[in-house]
Amino acid sequence: xxxxxxxxxxxxxxxxxxGGGVCHPDRQKPQDKAVVHEVQxxxxxxxxxATKKMKITRTVLGPDGRSTRREDKVLTIDVKPGWKAxxxxxxxxxxxxxxxxxxxxxxxxxxxxxxxxxTRDGSDIRYKANISLRDALLGTTVQVPTLDNKRITxxxxxxxxxxxxRRIQGEGLPLPKQSSRRGDLIVEFDIKFPDKLSPxxxxxxxxxxxxx
Length: 212
Hints:
It comes from Paralvinella palmiformis. This protein folds into 2 domains: 2-8 and 20-112, Urease metallochaperone UreE, N-terminal domain (HSP40/DNAj peptide-binding domain, Sandwich), CATH 2.60.260; 118-195, HSP40/DNAj peptide-binding domain (Sandwich).
C-alpha cells in the first residue's frame, strides 16, 4: 500500500534502476488504468485515526495462467490522524488479472464526510454558533462543542457582528505531518434577527441608534 498526501508525490523516485540486461516479462504488457474510489471519512476518524476495510471484487487468473474467476478481496486502509482530503492510498496491481496485461492499481481517495456541527478548513475546524440579536448586542455565554466531546465556555462581552469570529487554539485536527500538534477551532456566529418589532421596541431603537 502506498500513501500519497503530496500532489507532487507521484514524481518521487523517478529514474528507477539504471543497470542493464534484465528483462521482466510484465514490461511487455500494458498496465490497465488505475481504478479510483472515494472513501468518505468522518472528522472524528481524521481526529483519532481509524481502520477502514474496503471490499473489492476482481477477476483473477487460475493456476494455468489462462482461465479466470471472480473473487472478493478486502483491502485495509489505516487512516492516520490529520490526513487531508484528497490523500491517495494506492494498492499496486490489485485490479483485474488477465493473461494479456498488468492489473490496474486500486486507488482510494480520502473525502471528508459531511458533519452535523463542523466544517473543515485545512487542519482547522469551523463551528457556527446561533445567538439572538439581543445576545449579540448585550453579550452572552456560548458553550462550544469540540471533536473530543468537550464543551468550551466562550464569554462574549463585545458586540457580535455577522463577521465576528473567535479562535480557540489547539482544538482543531492534528497536523498531517505533526500529529502531536493541532489546528484551531474557529467559531462563527449566526445572528437570529426577529421577524418583527413592537412599536415600543422600534421607538427605543430609534432613540438609542439614531441615523449617523
